[in-house]
Specification:
Number of domains: 1
Distance between the termini: 47 Å
Strand content: under 5%
Structural class: mainly alpha
Helix content: over 70%
């Protein structure tokens, strides 16, 4: 079974994964990692799994702040994803990446 996967399945998958577009998606999404971690921490604090702590967070009013921080970090993450993917793709093509990232961000904002 392992041999069949290595001989038949793995080569086309690796060929697909190593294309410029998929590599740019992978590298561009790495720029969003800090925002994803911070947003996840705030989401965990807002919806804590221990009921007594969750009640305290809700009653103290901190839950609203945690939810706002979670929403803000994930909204900002979209901007960095757009810029990162455009930057990575153009950089892989051999051109300057920053103008492409800025153009991608402007187009993203125009289509929102």
């Amino acid at each position: 079974m392992n041999e069949w996967i290595n001989d038949k399945v793995l080569p086309p998958v690796l060929k697909f994964v190593n294309t410029k577009a998929i590599t740019a998606l992978r590298n561009g999404m790495l720029y969003t990692m800090p925002f994803s971690i911070v947003g996840s921490i705030f989401l965990l604090l807002a919806n804590f799994p221990v009921q007594s702590i969750a009640d305290w967070v809700t009653n103290s009013g901190l839950g609203d702040y945690f939810n706002q921080a979670y929403g803000a970090s994930f909204a900002i993450m979209a901007f960095f994803a757009v810029m990162g993917i455009a930057y990575s793709y153009v950089k892989a093509e051999g051109f300057e990446g920053l103008p492409a990232g800025m153009i991608g961000l402007v187009i993203f904002l125009l289509t929102m």
